[in-house]
């Protein structure tokens, strides 16, 4: 492979080589970053030297051998037959150096005894004598790692070099200074000394290098990306080329984007391991902090290194193209460098970073990031910093990070009183992410509450958590203890208690009784919001409840202290038939919950919005939202509130007509505690509707009756919440108890007023279904009017379908047809056509009957017997082939009959054929 952008360097090296061959010894030092092409230049030079008849002697310095006496010298002189006499001398010198007391001292600090000096001089003489016969090229790669003994010999050689046919080439990858100042000083004395610096490749150079492997068009396309990722380091460019080739082999085509893969990552690590260990340590620390322009002094404190050494290491990494502004150039490079750290090393490094950042007064979140990922930092500042960081993360909508801070603080804290508060805070953030995560803290918090060590605001939250997880008795004790404390001298705490009890009583009515709001509570939007829901649940919708709900929604802002009260206010609007307003508000809060990245809030608002969608007659949307609710928070983490999303799924499936899906949703495991919540009512109603639709009226009746009993017991018994009487009426009718069915339907209708459009429409539909047929059209007509006002497309489509059937039963197909067409249109829009049975067939029958009523009797009478039989089968929907098989005639004969039938009856298609009953008359 041709070297890119190295023509000038090769020209200079070749000139020195030629001059050395003529007897003018020369020395060249090639400096440059790791992987920037110094070794490649040596390779090309050695090839040219071989062509020119030079004897080539080579050695490579390495960090592990930098203290091994004669490591480089042995490589240079001991393997060349022409210098066989040197082998024993080198062996003696190495042995003597190894036995010397200062054998491991750096070059320049190790004293050289006279015997060793004489031996080294003799070795130089051997080389110069050989050079008299054949020119010699000596190459030492990575001379910065050469051992002291070898360096002494190289300095000796430089002193006799100028008049010998010897060229000495050294490559040096230093940390921004000369690795061996004594060597540098000797080099400067040489008249034919040349210093070359190998820069990184420019974008054009990268493109040139790529074109040799990938071709010009692709190289031009990828050159810019490759330069950005490689930093112009030729070794990394070749690694990226290899990644590209591998990808092309895997996919059988050349990728059009830059592929950064395994070869690149391995080469980055290889570059770091080729330098001094401090390079890798600095790279690891920089990868961990992942910031631009990290202060070398801070980094030195983290690594416990000299600041100058660290600064040189950063410069060396930048010079090699591995860093860009103090950061590794690509995420894969960072990943590989971090993976080179052991678990213990990584934790320790995080701890060092945390301490350094704290001492500099860095932001709490920056410090906390490293405390969390490190081992326990036993410092007085750890817990306060973590708590401050948690508060900042919550303000920034990063609940997961806040939870990590508090959890780490809890483990680091050794103060019992503070641990109680921290545990409560951990439970609170865990709750926002996944309620199941909070369960492990509830026992100790309950113990702290009984001991009087849990602050009031956390005690109320504890009651909510315990109820959610079905630990009703413990929750009751928590509430009783809170009430027993008394809050006469603390109005704020009293208001908090009333707001929380109001919330809990609306969700767990059989377990928690609401406290009557006081005059001072009128200004608390949370109490107004939950009071509006409680009023609608008990008495049905009215204007006051709507005003209170909307006031709460306009005043409150979404937070951990308001989210559940906001849901109550939205629910109040939904039950009050303000569905459009409820949907708008719920969508608003759902969007905020998503933006805040709080899974529980998103799940609960999704489930609430699904319930609103069901009331609007949009079961497809309801099902999607209910599924989202169970994706954001798994079913097993919903506790006793699981009835909400499951009920929505079942209701949506029943509305759509997908009974198999409804049955599968009902297999989701739930606890008995669900039926102690308001959501249990929804589940009983949904399950009963499924049983009724699936042909199990007794099972349905059991669910509806249980639901009704519970609602009466809780004084939530209003059809705007759950229309259980209407459904129970249908179930009674299905088992033959028409009297009880009518009584329940009448009772529910009487409970609805003019403002209860949806509930009244549902009750009228039920009464029409179970009552006398003579009143059916009138009741269904009124039901349609109410359901149109309510905006429930599913219920409206069903009412229209029933009204069309009633018109048909009354012998008025001309009235039935437009009603049925509207029902079909709504059913298609809502995606519920399957749930309305043979509605489309009925529409075709009505159209056929209306056509038949317009046909002259003479036209029908003009059909022959065989034509009437063909027409009857065609009207049923039979194909020509089916007709031919049934009547034992050919398909051609069927076609001929149909042509004559259409002409005689004056119709244009099968759909306009009279109903078979008319044709068969």
Please tell me about this protein's structure.
By secondary structure, the chain is mainly alpha-helical. Among the domains are: 7-198, 3-Layer(aba) Sandwich (Rossmann fold); 203-260; 272-466, no CATH class; 855-920, Winged helix-like DNA-binding domain superfamily/Winged helix DNA-binding domain (Arc Repressor Mutant, subunit A, Orthogonal Bundle). The protein is 67% helix and 4% strand. The chain has 46 helices and seven strands. The strands form two sheets. Strands 2-3-4-1-5 form a five-stranded parallel β-sheet, sandwiched between helices. The longest helix has 20 residues, at 114-133. The model has no long low-confidence stretch (mean pLDDT 89).
Report the β-strand fraction as a percent range: under 5%
Low-confidence residue ranges? none
The largest β sheet comes out as: 5 strands, parallel
Please give the order of strands in the largest beta sheet. 2-3-4-1-5
Radius of gyration: 44 Å
Total of helices: 46
Give the helix/strand class. mainly alpha
Span between N and C termini? 95 Å
Mean pLDDT: 89
Helix content: 55-70%
Instruction: Kindly state the number of beta strands.
Output: 7
Shape: elongated
Topology:
Blueprint: H1 7-21, E1 26-32, H2 38-51, E2 55-60, H3 71-77, H4 86-99, H5 114-133, E3 136-141, H6 148-159, E4 166-172, H7 181-188, E5 193-198, H8 203-214, H9 216-230, H10 234-251, H11 262-274, H12 277-289, H13 296-303, H14 307-319, E6 323-324, E7 327-328, H15 331-339, H16 343-359, H17 364-373, H18 382-395, H19 399-412, H20 416-433, H21 435-450, H22 456-468, H23 472-485, H24 491-507, H25 525-539, H26 543-555, H27 563-575, H28 579-596, H29 599-615, H30 619-632, H31 643-656, H32 659-665, H33 678-693, H34 697-714, H35 724-734, H36 738-751, H37 757-770, H38 776-790, H39 793-809, H40 813-830, H41 839-854, H42 857-861, H43 865-876, H44 880-887, H45 891-905, H46 916-920
Parallel strand pairs: 1-4, 1-5, 2-3, 3-4
Antiparallel strand pairs: 6-7
Helix pairs in contact: 1-2, 3-6, 4-5, 5-6, 6-7, 8-9, 8-10, 9-10, 10-11, 11-15, 12-14, 12-15, 13-14, 13-16, 16-17, 17-18, 18-19, 19-20, 20-21, 20-22, 21-22, 22-23, 22-24, 24-25, 25-26, 25-27, 26-27, 27-28, 27-29, 28-29, 29-30, 29-31, 30-31, 31-32, 31-33, 33-34, 33-35, 34-35, 35-36, 35-37, ...
């Amino acid at each position: 492979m041709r070297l890119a952008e190295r023509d000038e360097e090769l020209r200079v090296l070749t000139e020195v080589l030629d001059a050395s061959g003529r007897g003018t010894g020369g020395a060249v030092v090639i400096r440059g970053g790791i992987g920037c092409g110094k070794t490649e230049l040596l390779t090309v030079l050695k090839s040219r030297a071989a062509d020119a008849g030079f004897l080539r002697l080579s050695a490579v310095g390495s960090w592990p051998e930098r203290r091994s006496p004669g490591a480089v010298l042995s490589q240079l002189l001991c393997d060349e037959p022409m210098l066989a006499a040197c082998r024993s001398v080198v062996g003696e010198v190495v042995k003597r150096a190894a036995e010397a007391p200062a054998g491991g001292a750096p070059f320049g600090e190790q004293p050289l005894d006279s015997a060793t000096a004489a031996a080294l001089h003799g070795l130089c003489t051997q080389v110069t004598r050989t050079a008299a016969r054949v020119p010699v090229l000596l190459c030492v790669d990575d001379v910065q790692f050469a051992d002291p003994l070898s360096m002494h010999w190289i300095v000796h050689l430089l002193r006799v070099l100028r008049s010998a046919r010897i060229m000495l080439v050294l490559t040096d990858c230093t940390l921004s200074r000369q690795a061996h100042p004594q060597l540098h000083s000797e080099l400067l004395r040489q008249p034919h000394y040349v210093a070359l610096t190998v820069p990184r490749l420019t974008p054009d150079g990268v493109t040139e290098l790529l074109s040799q492997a990938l071709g010009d068009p692709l190289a031009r396309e990828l050159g810019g990306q490759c330069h950005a990722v490689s930093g112009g380091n030729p070794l990394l460019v070749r690694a990226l080329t290899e990644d590209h080739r591998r990808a092309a082999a895997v996919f059988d085509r050349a990728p059009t984007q830059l592929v950064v893969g395994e070869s690149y990552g391995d080469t980055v690590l290889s570059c770091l391991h080729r330098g001094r260990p401090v390079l890798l340590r600095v790279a690891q620390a920089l990868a961990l902090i992942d910031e631009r322009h990290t202060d070398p002094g801070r980094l030195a404190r983290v690594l416990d290194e000299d600041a100058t050494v660290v600064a040189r290491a950063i410069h060396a990494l930048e010079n090699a193209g591995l860093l860009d502004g103090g950061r590794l150039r690509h995420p894969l490079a960072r990943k590989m460098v971090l993976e080179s750290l052991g678990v213990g090393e990584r934790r320790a490094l995080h701890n060092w970073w945390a301490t350094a950042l704290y001492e500099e007064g860095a932001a709490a979140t920056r410090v906390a990031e490293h405390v969390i990922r490190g081992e326990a930092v036993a410092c007085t500042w750890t817990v306060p910093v973590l708590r401050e960081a948690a508060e900042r993360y919550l303000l920034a909508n990063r609940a997961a990070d806040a939870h990590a801070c508090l959890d780490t603080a809890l483990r680091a804290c050794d103060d019992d009183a503070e641990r109680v508060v921290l545990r409560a805070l951990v439970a609170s953030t865990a709750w926002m992410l996944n309620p199941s995560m909070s369960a492990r803290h509830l026992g100790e918090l309950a113990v702290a509450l009984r001991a009087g060590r849990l602050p009031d605001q956390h005690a109320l939250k504890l009651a909510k958590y315990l109820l959610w997880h079905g630990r009703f008795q413990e929750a009751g004790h928590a509430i009783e203890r809170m009430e027993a404390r008394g809050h006469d001298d603390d109005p704020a705490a009293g208001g908090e208690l009333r707001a929380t009890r109001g919330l809990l009583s609306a969700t767990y009515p059989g377990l928690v009784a609401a406290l009557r709001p006081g005059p001072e509570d009128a200004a608390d939007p949370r109490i107004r919001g939950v009071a509006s829901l409680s009023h609608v649940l008990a008495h049905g919708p009215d204007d006051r409840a709507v005003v209170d709900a909307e006031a709460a929604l306009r005043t409150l802002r979404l937070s951990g202290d308001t989210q559940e009260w906001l849901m109550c206010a939205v629910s109040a609007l939904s039950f009050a038939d303000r569905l459009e307003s409820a949907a708008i508000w719920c969508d608003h809060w759902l969007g905020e919950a998503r933006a805040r990245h709080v899974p529980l809030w998103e799940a609960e608002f999704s489930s609430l919005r699904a319930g609103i969608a069901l009331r609007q007659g949009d079961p497809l949307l309801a099902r999607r939202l209910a599924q989202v609710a169970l994706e954001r928070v798994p079913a097993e983490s919903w506790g006793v509130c699981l009835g909400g999303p499951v009920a929505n799924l079942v209701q949506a499936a029943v509305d759509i007509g997908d009974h198999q899906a409804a049955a599968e949703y009902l297999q989701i495991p739930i606890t008995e505690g669900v039926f102690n919540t308001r959501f249990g009512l929804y589940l009983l109603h949904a399950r009963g509707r499924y049983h009724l639709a699936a042909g199990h009226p007794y099972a349905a009746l059991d669910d509806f009756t249980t639901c009704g009993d519970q609602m009466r017991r809780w004084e939530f018994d209003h059809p705007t919440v759950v229309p259980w009487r209407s459904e129970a009426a249908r179930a009674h009718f299905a088992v033959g108890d028409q009297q009880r069915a009518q009584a329940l339907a009448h009772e529910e209708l009487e409970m609805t007023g003019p403002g209860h459009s949806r509930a009244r429409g549902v009750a009228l539909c039920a009464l029409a279904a179970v009552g006398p047929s003579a009143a059916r059209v009138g009741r269904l007509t009124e039901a349609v009017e109410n359901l149109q006002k309510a905006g429930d497309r599913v219920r409206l489509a069903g009412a229209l379908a029933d009204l069309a059937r009633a018109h048909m039963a009354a012998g008025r197909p001309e009235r039935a047809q437009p009603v049925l067409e509207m029902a079909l249109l709504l059913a298609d829009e809502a995606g519920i056509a399957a749930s309305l049975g043979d509605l489309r067939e009925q529409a075709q029958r009505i159209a056929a009957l209306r056509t038949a009523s317009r046909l002259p009797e003479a036209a029908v009478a003009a059909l022959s017997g065989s034509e009437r039989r063909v027409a009857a089968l065609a009207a049923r929907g039979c194909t020509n082939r089916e007709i031919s098989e049934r009547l034992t005639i050919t398909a051609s004969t069927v076609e001929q009959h149909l042509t004559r039938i259409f002409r005689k009856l004056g119709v244009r298609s099968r759909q306009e054929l009279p109903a078979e009953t008319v044709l068969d008359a």
